[in-house]
Amino acid sequence: MALLSSRRAPSAAVPAADVPAAPGRAPPRHVAIIMDGNGRWAAARGVPRLAGHRAGVAAVRRTVEAAIAAGVGWLTLYAFSSENWRRPQEEIADLKGLLRHYLAHELAELASAGVRLHVIGERERFGAELAAALAAAEADTVANTRLDLVMALSYGGRAELVAAARAIARQAGAGGLDPAALDEAGFARHLFTAGMPDPDLLIRTSGERRLSNFLLWQAAYAELVFLDVLWPDFGAEHLAAALAEYAGRERRFGARLG
Ligand code: IPE
Ligand code: IPE
Ligand code: MG
After folding, report:
1. Whose CA is nearest to atom 1 of ligand 2?
2. Ligand 1 pocket mutation pick from 36, 41, 212 by most atoms within 8 angstroms of CB
């Protein structure tokens, strides 16, 4: 199975002076990953899906270490979508249990590695206890600067956009905002990701090639890399391959390079 299923782009040319961001050769500031394939990994081994999700947590650990070693500043991981609530109650309970375990047993290690945790998504849907544990994890790591780790939990891009539109409409209705003055930056301040850089590189594992409602606004100009590896098998070598693929991409942002 090929490691990379995406086409390799020709090497980047020298960018024109008015291109708004660094060329692809610079390392990505922000890498976002759709961690997919836990169920297929388990099925291939004849073990319960929970075993696949557990192996997925181990891959998260490896990936955080690899991202720090590679000098990535921001890492966003899609762990649970707003549509994943459609899964059987038993699987949802297993995933909640894994999240609880992760916060209880891995947060200290993350914190000592210099990781600052952020959560995007409708965390309250996990219940008051888990929502409070997530808020505490964010507060406990707020001073860390080595890696900003964003966990997308009960996250959906469409729900996020609707919530932003609702907040803006409310503000305008109350006379606190002139609709004509709203610009892209002003809109983005109403997203869960307010203050965070947009992803430069978006990776999806397991061979699926879709966004599944992930970072619809933020990924407007992300470079997409689809890998055939199942998430529980993901490791430093796969991150390195995706970074190499990214380095060969020419990022134009609609402008012309020469
Ligand atoms: C990703 O693996 C984890 C979550 C969505 C929670 P899946 O559980 O989607 O695994 P597949 O796609 O069925 O293999
Ligand atoms: C996307 O994977 C969500 C996460 C990885 C958390 P899914 O497995 O839920 O996506 P679909 O259903 O195949 O699009
Ligand atoms: Mg899946």
Report:
1. 212
2. 36
Query: Looking at the annotation, which residues are catalytic?
Result: 36, 84
What six digits make up the tokens of 71? Answer: 């000098």
Q: Find out whether the beta carbon of 59 lies less than 6 Å from any atom of ligand 2.
A: no
State pTM to two decimals.
0.91
Residue ranges per structural domain of the chain: 27-156+199-247
Q: Which residues pair with 221 in a beta bridge?
A: none
* Dihedral, CA of residue 101, residue 202, residue 165 and residue 167, to nearest 10: 40
State how far the alpha carbon of 70 is from the alpha carbons of 51, 113, 241, in Å. 28, 14, 12
For the segment(s) 27-156+199-247, the CATH number from 3.40.309.10, 3.40.50.1820, 3.40.50.2300, 3.40.1180.10 is 3.40.1180.10
DSSP 8-state symbol, 254: T
**Ligand 2 site, residue 208, Cβ cutoff 6 A:** yes
Could you read off the pLDDT tens digit of each residue along the chain, which spans 258 residues? 344 443 333 333 334 444 444 444 678 999 999 999 999 999 999 999 999 999 999 999 999 999 999 999 999 999 999 999 999 999 999 999 999 999 999 999 999 999 999 999 999 999 999 999 999 999 999 999 999 999 999 999 999 999 999 999 999 999 999 999 999 999 999 999 999 999 999 999 999 999 999 999 999 999 999 999 999 999 999 999 999 999 999 999 999 887
